[in-house]
Amino acid sequence: MSMKIPPLIKRNMILFSLSQSFTGAGMQFSYGFGPLMVVSLTGSAGLAGLSVALVGLSRFLVAYPMGKITDKYGRKPGIFFGLVLAMCGTLMLGTAMYVRSAPLYVIGLLTFGMGMNGAQQMRVGVTDMFPAPMRARALGYVALGSLFGLILSPMLVKFADSISRSTGLDPLGLPWFFMPVLIIIGMVVVYFVNPDPKVIGQNLSQYWPGMPTPAKPAEPPKDFSAWRLLSNPSIRLAILSNCAATGNMSIVMVLTSLVLQHHGHSLTTIAISHTFHSAGMFAFTIPLGRLADRYGRSTVMFPGVFVSLIGAALVAYTSGIATVTLGTFLVGLGWAGANVAATAFIADHSRTEERGRAIGVNDSFAGGITVFSAIVTGPLIEWYGLPATGLTAMLLAAVPFVLRAFSGPMK
User: Fold this and answer.
1) Domain ranges within the chain, ordered by starting residue
2) For the segment 267-277, what is each residue's pLDDT rounded down to a tens digit?
3) DSSP sequence for 52-102
4) Which helix (H) or strand (E) element contains residue 346?
5) pLDDT interval class at 216 (50, 70, 90)
6) Are the C-beta atoms of 122 and 247 separated by less than 8 Å?
7) What is the pTM of this model?
């Protein structure tokens, strides 16, 4: 299907992408510096995975409820609520580092994570606005907005680092106090998205000239059921593939900061390395989406999981800045392929009125595997060293290939 994107749809998509640019910088902080903040507050490397675990837990807790809210009231109210929550979390996180409070850090990161994961309803909104044959590339366009956040993140860290040198303030806490400004800008941008994407999704043929009006179903559709969604073997495989790439990435995000800090690299260098990881996550989402639209979701999803497996091995089994950065880049790239394809596949198999909950189920499982991966990473590092963590990440990435061998092709 090759159709020209209507101006209104294009405008809304650009606005979502721009909002993602401003609001996404904070996630780079939480993943890049979260492990260092935990070690700084607790003095224990065994707890290094706590930060990523908390982000995963927040995703697990909020993804489905937020999807239920936006299915009922629209995507924009959920996005606004999420961003307000995230802004409160940033202030708690910055304060936690200055008062040296680990409990406040935990509460702050949970609050921030729930807010940012709630704001991920932007992805659902984008799938609402596009017909199925163009849905994956649409996800790629909005994800591309995160690239601007990649530029902002190291700049803010460098600025905060220079201030901390002259004032003695904690360089891990200071960047969080800059985030509310960016989040407010992101909220203003979302305000101009009209009409609500859910309205567009329920009336696609009115917004896409030449698109046929879908026939009305013979009987009213059944109420949404997560169990019914999971009864589809192909849906289960899509969710598992996304979980495998996400769990793999969760381990690598903990490892990267610790490995580079262990070898004496500065916070700015660590931020730059994580920028390459995030570039892998977002810079290639448009071509990956186009491939998924043209050749099918599985042709992008499974190679993505495999690429993330290779990247995890590089991060865990090498020590040079170049090879570690290459590995974390490949993990991000592999995750992008798996996530875009799996999300588009689930969106294809769900109605607009239930899409927030359907994608929320996928995100909840991804949050759960993030918690597991992050929690086991710290003890594995402390007890068995980096090779054990690398092996765990690789085994996680191998699971979908085993399942696919028994379940057959996706339908």
Assistant:
1) 7-194+226-405
2) 667 777 777 88
3) HHHHHHHHHHHHHHHHHHHHHH-HHHHHHHHHHHHHHHHHHHHHHHHHT-H
4) helix 321-348
5) low
6) no
7) 0.85
Asked whether the beta carbons of 271 and 32 are under 8 A apart, the reply is: yes
Collect contacts of 402-411 with beta carbons under 8 A, ≥24 apart: 403/237, 403/240, 404/237, 404/302, 407/233, 407/234, 407/236, 407/237, 409/298, 410/234, 410/237, 410/238, 410/296, 410/297, 410/298, 410/345, 411/234
pLDDT (0 to 100) of residue 46: 67
Element (H, E) at 141: helix 135-144
From the centroid of its chain, how far is CA 341? 14
CATH fold for domain 7-194+226-405: Growth Hormone; Chain: A; (1.20.1250)
Q: How far apart are CA 372 and CA 376, in angstroms?
A: 6
| Beta carbons of 136 and 289 less than 8 angstroms apart | yes
Token digits for 2?
């090759």
- pLDDT per residue over 292-303, tens digit each? 999 999 999 999
Nearest to 21 by CA among 174, 197, 124, 143: 143
Residues 60 and 368 sit within 8 Å (Cβ to Cβ):
yes
Q: Give CA–CA dist 33/254, Å, rounded.
A: 9
Element (H, E) at 267: helix 267-282
Question: Residue 268: which residues within 8 A CB-CB, separation 6 or more?
Answer: 154, 157, 158, 161
* Cα gap 348→336, rounded to integer Å: 18
Choose the weakest-confidence range: 77-81, 225-229, 376-380: 376-380
Banded model confidence at residue 161, pLDDT cuts 50, 70, 90: confident
Cα-based torsion angle of the residue sequence 219, 220, 224, 230 in order, rounded to the nearest 10 degrees: 10
Q: With 90 as the cut, is the pLDDT of residue 338 above it?
A: yes
What's the CA gap between 136 and 131, in Å, rounded? 10
Helices (H) then strands (E): counts for the chain: 19, 0
What is d(CA 182, CA 104) in angstroms, rounded to the nearest whole number?
22
